[in-house]
Design goal:
Helix content is 42%, strand content 13%. The protein contains 15 helices and twelve strands. Strands 1-2-6-5-4-3-7-8-9 form a nine-stranded mixed beta sheet, sandwiched between helices. Strands 10-12-11 form a three-stranded antiparallel beta sheet. Helix 6 links the parallel strand 3 and strand 4. The N and C termini lie far apart (51 Å). The relative contact order is 0.09.
């Protein structure tokens, strides 16, 4: 993007009454942000939602002074800029009417041709939530997903750490400018996150982590990804806001169930009960509902080999029971495998995924599986 174009985009963002939706209307009508300031006011009045108040605000020259200062910060700190009309602007955000006009980022973010999921939840993550999150990311790792979260306490930072542990790209979407980190105690994770992905925000360097910014941040977390996963949540919380936004964007939402007496399972249980989220008991549920292609999983990781039967592969006793059954019977439906091997369906789905990743079975159309 040319510096002059960026300058006028920044100036447009500072015009009172011009949010992302109105900015896009003005740019689409005039062609560029620069043209918005140059177009005769009589030709702007016909734009839906544009009134005399905005007309006066466009004449305020102070927006250019603010834009000049922010442009200097961007240039001095090597901040990456993505414009909503750019090819490399996150594809799913392009379909969100209120998606940010500009995204500022740092690190090594690459979202092209990637499976992207958001993982959110309570700041008070429990051992149950930790164990589920650990197992989920471990099982999904061969599929090389991008893990998006909000870099907050609890579920967020735990998901980022697990992504780094499994060498997955991870993105922290923050509710402030890139000149600071919130919470400050998470500064120790910044270098590793930027090495394995990076940070993204719509906020200027003049923006602090104010309460209202977190809701705006949540719409990016929900909009950028294919699915949003709520690990744990009380009956109220920011992760439920993210889940609701994801629903509004017509994205898949998943929630991890818990005991009815557990405080930090109430939000997830309510999402499932009100059919605002899919029940998530294992990575297999996610893979099945999102229709991810397991067979091509290894192609997305540079260090992986084609999925095939491993020599001397180690199977758990329950996995061995399933494998022996399939060797004897040939291809079989997942429900029949669960019935004949005496396993609950929620357990067999996760087991089959693990065996598939080990290269000892393969899926067939119609929920059939066969031994390799």
């Amino acid at each position: 993007m040319k510096e002059q174009d960026l300058f006028h985009l920044l100036a447009l963002q500072q015009v009172d009454g011009v949010g992302d939706i109105m900015a896009k209307k003005l740019i689409n009508h005039c062609g560029t942000a620069s043209a918005v300031f140059e177009t005769k006011h009589s030709k702007l009045v016909g734009i839906d939602g544009f009134g005399s108040g905005l007309l006066r605000n466009l004449k305020n020259k102070s927006v250019f002074e603010k834009a000049e200062k922010e442009l200097l910060f961007i240039k001095s700190n090597g901040i990456d800029i993505t414009y909503f009309q750019d090819e490399n602007y996150p594809d799913r955000l392009k379909h969100c009417i209120d998606g940010p006009v500009l995204l500022f980022s740092s690190g090594n973010i690459d979202l092209q041709n990637k499976k992207i999921i958001s993982i959110v939840g309570t700041r008070q993550i429990t051992s149950y939530g930790m164990e589920f999150c650990r197992k989920l990311i471990e099982d999904l790792a061969p599929l090389d997903p991008v893990i998006v979260s909000g870099f907050a306490y609890g579920v967020d930072i735990f998901a980022h750490q697990l992504a780094i542990e499994h060498n997955l790209q991870t993105i922290g979407v923050v509710a402030h400018g890139l000149n600071q980190i919130y919470p400050k105690t998470h500064k120790k994770y910044v270098a590793k996150v930027e090495q394995n992905g990076g940070f993204m925000t719509e906020f200027w360097s003049t923006s602090n982590p104010e309460k209202e910014n977190f809701v705006r941040r949540n719409r990016i977390v929900a909009g950028i990804s294919e699915a949003t996963i709520v690990i744990e949540s009380a009956d109220r919380g920011g992760s439920l806001i993210t889940a609701n936004i994801a629903n509004d964007y017509n994205r898949d939402v998943f929630a991890v169930p818990g005991r009815t007496t557990d405080k930090y399972s109430q939000g997830c249980n309510n999402l499932i009960k009100t059919q605002k989220a899919n029940l998530l008991t294992s990575a297999a549920d996610l893979v099945y509902i999102l229709n991810w292609d397991i067979g091509n999983a290894s192609k997305s990781r540079n260090d992986a080999k084609p999925v095939q039967k491993q020599l001397f592969v180690t199977l758990e006793p329950d996995e061995q029971k399933v494998y022996d059954f399939l060797l004897k019977t040939g291809k079989e439906l997942m429900d029949i495998i669960a019935l004949r091997c005496d396993f609950p369906i929620y357990k067999i789905s996760g087991m089959l995924l693990n065996m598939e990743l080990k290269g000892v079975i393969r899926p067939l159309p119609g929920k059939f599986f066969e031994a390799i």
